[in-house]
Each structure stands twice: as structure tokens, then as C-alpha cells.
Design brief:
Helix content is 7%, strand content 38%. By secondary structure, it is mainly beta. The two termini are 52 Å apart. The N terminus is likely disordered.
Length: 417
């Protein structure tokens, strides 16, 4: 009897095509077949030595699809119980149908894995028999596989403001299903939430900054998750990274001061100069993106002025650069503005420090550190709206951040052992 392939939606009870042996027989031993067979079918077992009819035999495909519930049938009897266990993993949830004709999983199998079946069945003559077997699950083909990158990467040491960022290579339609599979644990549990930026990027951050000197573990249990029509997670991902010391700087555009805190204690207060009125530095909380010892900065690349000699034209080699936005906001050394630091805001939007102070801040800084600017005349709204990675994680109210979750709720990270 040829099976009918079941689908995830509209599941029938059609039997698959590989008969699993009774437990008393080995699949590797000599086999006696009975009954008619379709091509590719093997039924292991035989008639009872007594006149009680044939023994029951499980029926399941040797390879089952990854995108449909598993159905295990029985010949010559009715199923009493079935346990399906992933090799080296959990038991698959499922139930025997009301008439005992089949067992059907209540979820999907994990692609590219093998499951072991242990069952009992009652023959047509009333005998109870133990049955055993196994089946493989097809892997998700490359053309249908959800792929991604996750940061911070394993082994990274980052600042207290570093978000977890997942960037997908394909558009995720079933955001809730994907988000349910994303698990964040930390050595110090925190309240946090995921926030989607379109259908290809999702961030996780705590409500407040990560605790200093803690560990964060991210598990993306995506194998077998349907991310969209014809798009499936084909493997799991994980990343474990560390949070370093807390480095938080507060820059006051009115007082023109740059205050550095390490693990909550003020370690320095330096004079600074921010953007002049027409190029005011944006208020808001910035995430340090990277550091570069020397950068050539030009007014043309900043889209300010490209005519040499014109007002606001500049072309400079700038030292000790700590990037705050992709759009070009830096904390850097500016020896040419030392006379104005602490007195006037004269830059084109960057945060100026003396060479000595700029170098000190550069050597302290790492990705994920926090710099907050206050008392300026310009908001961060334009860079938040454009998705600039230096500003999109910490310039929201907490309720607005949580509303960007596909599940609409904050979560508590589980504690790492």
C-alpha cells in the first residue's frame, strides 16, 4: 500500500513507506518479507509461528520531510504507545490517533537529524508486541535555507551598551516564530527585549546597560523554524561574548565638558568643543562603533563643502578617532581647537579633545561603550530614522523599544550556570 505524503497544513493519516522492524528482529539481520511491496518498501517481520496471524509492523518513511508533521503507521494491528526521540536530543511531542492507526507529531522534526522510535502495538489477534525503528529527517536545501550573521561574535569583549544584532540574508515573514527561537542568557540576569528594524535585522538590548564584567550567551534555535513561505532555518547558531568594564562618557554641550566614568566612578573631566550652531552635535546616547588611530577627514566627504578655500572647507589628518555614527560623528583629538575647548563649540559636529585627552579616550574605548551628549540644540531623530547603527539602540523610550518586538513583550534573560 503506497503512502500518501502528509503536509503541514491539512495533515492526513497516510502511511509512509518504510516499515520499521519488530523489536525482536534486527534490521541488520536476515529479513523475511510478507505481503506485496511497492518499490523502495521493506517490511520486516513475518507470520507468527502460531496460527495467530502476522505480527504488527511500524510503517514510516526512511527519510521524512523537514516541513511536515511526522506520521508513523502500523500494519496488522493498532498502536498503543509511541515514543519518538531525537538522537542525543529530546522526545518529539505527538499522539496516537483515536483508532490506533497512526501516531502523528504535534510539531515539526528537526532537519538533518535522526530519530529513534519505540512503540507497542496490539495485533489483530490481540497480542501485544514491542516495536522499534528509526528514521532520518531531510536537510533544508540551500535554496530554502535562512542564513544570517550574529554579533557580537563568540569570544568578543564589548562595552555595556553593545546590542545583540542579527542580520538575515533573506526577508523574514514569520517574525514571531523566529523571535521565539532566539534565547539570550547572561551571568547576571537582566530584563531585555528584541526590536525589529525591517524584516532582515533584529536587535536585543537590556532595558538598562549590561552589567560590567558579565557573560552573555545567545542561542539561535532556528533549525526547523519556518521563517517565511519556502524559507526555513536549516541549522542553529550560538555566540558567547563578554562585557568588559563599564565605560560611559557624558558630554555637556552647554558646559563644554567631557566626563568619563569607569565602572560608575568619575575618572576624568576634560574641556571639550562640540559642533558650532549650524553643525550642532546631536543630543542622544551613542554606541562606540570602532576606533582608528588616524583618519583623513574632509568637508567634501562630510557633504559640507567641496570647494577648496570656501567657508567650512577642511582637509585634515585627524588622530585618535573614536567613531560614534556611520554618518561621521567622532570623538577625536583636535589640537587646532584647544583654545576653544571648554569655551566655545566650533567643530563641524564632532566632539573635540586635546591630543593627550583624545589619545587617552581612544585607548580606553571599545565597541559598545557609551557616549551621551546633552544640552545641545539638535535631536538624534534624523539618524535614528535612517538607521544609523551608532544611534538606533538607545534613543527610544523602553516602551517604544519593546513595541518593536514581534511578540510585543520584554523577556528576562536566563541565568548562566
Amino acid at each position: 500500500m503506497r503512502a500518501r505524503r502528509t503536509s503541514r497544513r491539512g495533515l492526513g493519516l497516510g502511511y509512509a513507506v518504510f516499515a520499521v522492524a519488530a523489536a525482536t528482529l534486527s534490521l541488520a539481520a536476515c529479513q523475511t518479507t510478507t505481503g506485496s511491496q511497492s518499490p523502495g518498501q521493506v517490511q520486516v517481520g513475518g507470520a507468527s509461528p502460531k496460527a495467530s496471524g502476522p505480527l504488527p509492523a511500524l510503517v514510516v518513511s526512511s527519510v521524512v520531510p523537514y516541513d511536515a508533521a511526522v506520521s508513523i503507521g502500523v500494519r496488522h494491528g493498532t498502536l498503543e504507545s509511541v515514543t519518538v526521540t531525537q538522537s542525543g536530543g529530546p522526545v518529539m511531542a505527538g499522539k496516537v490517533t483515536g483508532n490506533g492507526a497512526a501516531w502523528v507529531s504535534t510539531g515539526l522534526p528537526r532537519p538533518g537529524t535522526r530519530y529513534v522510535v519505540a512503540a507497542s502495538a496490539t495485533s489483530t489477534a490481540g497480542q501485544t508486541t514491542s516495536l522499534a525503528g528509526s528514521f532520518a529527517v531531510a536537510a533544508v536545501p540551500t535554496s530554502r535555507r535562512l542564513t544570517l550573521t550574529v554579533s557580537p561574535g563568540t569570544g568578543s569583549v564589548v562595552g555595556v551598551g553593545a546590542p545583540v544584532i542579527i542580520r538575515f540574508d533573506q526577508s523574514v515573514v514569520n517574525r514571531a516564530a523566529v523571535e521565539r527561537s532566539l534565547v539570550v542568557s547572561s551571568s547576571t540576569p537582566v530584563t531585555g527585549a528584541w526590536h525589529w528594524f525591517g524584516d532582515r535585522e533584529v536587535h536585543f538590548r537590556p532595558e538598562n546597560y549590561w552589567p560590567a564584567d558579565s557573560t552573555v550567551d545567545v542561542k539561535l534555535n532556528l533549525n526547523g523554524v519556518e521563517a517565511g513561505p519556502g524559507l526555513w532555518g536549516g541549522r542553529n547558531y550560538d555566540s558567547r561574548f563578554s562585557i568588559g568594564d563599564s565605560h560611559v562618557a557624558l558630554v555637556d554641550a552647554a558646559a563644554k565638558t567631557f566626563t568619563v566614568k569607569v565602572n560608575g566612578k568619575v575618572t576624568a573631566v576634560w574641556p571639550t568643543s562640540l559642533g558650532r550652531p549650524q553643525f550642532a552635535t546631536r543630543n542622544g546616547t551613542y554606541v562606540v562603533l570602532d576606533t582608528t588611530p588616524i583618519i583623513r577627514m574632509t568637508s567634501c566627504s562630510a557633504r559640507i563643502q567641496c570647494v577648496k578655500g570656501a567657508p567650512n572647507y577642511y582637509d585634515l589628518l585627524v588622530s585618535w578617532d573614536v567613531r560614534l555614527t556611520n554618518s561621521g560623528t567622532f570623538v577625536h583629538a583636535a589640537p587646532w581647537s584647544v583654545g576653544n575647548q571648554g569655551r566655545a563649540n566650533v567643530s563641524h559636529g564632532c566632539v573635540n579633545l586635546s591630543t593627550a585627552h583624545g589619545e587617552a579616550f581612544y585607548h580606553q574605548s571599545r565597541y559598545g561603550d557609551i557616549v551621551t551628549v546633552v544640552h545641545s540644540s539638535r535631536t538624534p531623530a534624523d539618524l535614528v530614522a535612517s538607521g544609523d547603527p551608532g544611534m538606533i539602540d538607545w534613543n527610544w523610550s523602553w516602551s517604544t523599544w519593546v513595541s518593536g518586538s514581534a511578540l510585543g513583550a520584554a523577556v528576562q534573560t536566563t541565568a548562566l550556570a
